[in-house]
Amino acid sequence: MVNLKINGIPLQVEEGTSILNAAKKVHIKIPTLCYNPDLPPWASCGICIVRMEGSPKMVRACTTPVSENMSVITHDPEIIAVRRTVVELILSNHPSDCLQCPRNGSCELQTLAAEFGIREVPYKKVLNGLPIDDSNPAIVLNPEKCIRCGRCVKVCQGMQNVWALEFLGRGIKGRIASAADTPLGDSPCIKCGQCAAHCPVGAIYERDDTVRIWTALQASDLHPVVQIAPAVRVALAEEFGLKPGFIATKKIYAALRRLGFKTVFDTNFSADLTIMEEGTELVKRLTEKSGEIPLITSCCPAWVDYMEKYYADMIPNFSTAKSPQQMMGAMIKSYWADKAGINPDKIYSVSVMPCTAKKWETKRNDDMKSAGRLTGRGHGYDVDIAITTRELARMIKQAGIEILSLPDEEADSPLGPYTGAGTIFGATGGVMEAAVRSAYFLVTKKELGDVNFIPVRGLDGVKEAEVDFHNGTKIRIAVAHQMGNIAAVLDRIRAAKQEGKEPPYHFVEVMACRGGCVGGGGQPYGCTDEIRSQRTAGLYQDDKQSTYRCSHHNPFITQVYKEFLEEPNGHKAHELLHTHYKALPLYSK
């Protein structure tokens, strides 16, 4: 432990703590722009400068560790003047079209300018006239607004190990760009949106599709249907002032109906459906040797994109089950359309997701048109459009809906009711836990005594465990989240395969974003591990209070198999609920 003073306040912190984080212990905020708790600090912006008492020398608080008997001054007239100058210099190289910016009201640079009371910039405005890159189906890049903080590059290269973004140029001509300065749509980008989630300004943001949905909601000849993903329910309320983890499910249903959606379903239902398909697939691979082991989950579209580009040799290990979003879309335009007597071509199917990659997934390949192919009715994609949690929040605000004051409402049946297993899909380890709950039953025909599978919970980058399925038969599992953590797991599997050895795991869950979908690229800004943990706690609370906690207990899942799908992994289920993969070049749209 180290003893020091900050602005005369004595405190004790662990050795190695930065001045920035030490100041937080005594409730002192040092302004930053380049710093983010997810990333290693690199002192790019220079706004966090502080000085030692009795010394004119200034140091950067984010990278300077505390030392014994240090006495730090974080705010005085000289420090404030320097910080103000730094902000003014950044603004001199930054567009002033704040009212048209997608980050207006949530921009960290805008907030700092307001805090420093900047009304005029004493320096000549110098802009580079860089064009917007909208070649990517999920992410828009506006390099003109880049402040060169480096967050997006560090996220893409360090956290995600994708390397789709880099710095080009020097000094005032410096800018972010996609790899090799190609269009972002042709880069190795996997559309996860973590660059957008970590950008402090409007240099990278999700493609906004809300206008298209408003148009569809106003079309008298369309029947708009919507589904909401598990992680949306524990994050949306943050946009309206509540703490992360608040379970807003039933108020979201009500708000969606006020927006004009005629039918409201829940992706948690199709998460239960996914478990029946994926769990059965696992059991068949283990007992009938009908495919390669380990089975690797396929619910995350960013991970699918990554796998097809970087680990295409593992396609035989990949579950063919579609994601819950795509399963729901297929069921809406086949099973439900027939029950409701609605022409599938008149159904406008919308999904609300915590993920930007879901925008790309809706058009990933022709398997995403499976409802029309199976039934011979309908010619469009199973899901017409996907929007993020942030986009839904904007729509609710645009409509003047006071969502927190709405009475609770229920989802529509039969594609709405869900189990606790469906809701925990939104957290890292949740797919695995849900699968274990039902796969155990499928193998043993017995129920798990305790459905809480603690070893796969938490924010460790890679989690490993064993499940005793029956008479000492142990299933080795692994859970990996945040793309940068995944290579080690995959390389172990690849090495075992190449050497002809037994695989290290039987079942592997992968999620591209840290924390899983709760930390998705389309969730409310400002996500940290603390917020991820709070959102995750909300999902497990929703699980705990559910009437049913295992997917195979959902009576509506039983109903759709009896009335339509026949059996898990059967012929009709494969036609509608499964997909295929192919190797992709790294630079591919």
Question: How would you explain this protein's 3D organization?
Answer:
The chain is an alpha/beta fold and 589 residues long. It has three domains: 2-75, Roll (Ubiquitin-like (UB roll)); 91-206, Alpha-Beta Plaits (2-Layer Sandwich), CATH 3.30.70; 219-577, 3-Layer(aba) Sandwich (Fe-only Hydrogenase (Larger Subunit), Chain L, domain 3), CATH 3.40.950. It has 19 helices and 17 strands. The strands form five sheets. Strands 2-1-5-3-4 form a five-stranded mixed beta sheet, with helices on both faces. A four-stranded parallel beta sheet has the order 11-10-13-14, with helices on both faces. Strands 12-17-16-15 form a four-stranded mixed beta sheet.
Keywords:
Fe-only Hydrogenase (Larger Subunit), Chain L, domain 3; 5-stranded mixed sheet; 3 domains; Alpha-Beta Plaits; single chain; 589 residues; Ubiquitin-like (UB roll); alpha/beta
List the helices and strands and how they pair.
Elements: E1 2-6, E2 9-13, H1 19-25, E3 49-52, E4 58-60, E5 70-73, H2 77-92, H3 108-115, E6 139-141, H4 151-159, E7 165-168, E8 175-178, H5 194-198, E9 204-206, H6 210-217, E10 223-228, H7 249-259, E11 263-266, H8 267-287, E12 295-296, H9 301-310, H10 324-340, E13 347-353, H11 357-361, H12 370-375, E14 385-388, H13 389-398, H14 420-423, H15 430-444, E15 462-470, E16 473-481, H16 486-499, E17 507-511, H17 529-544, H18 555-565, H19 571-577
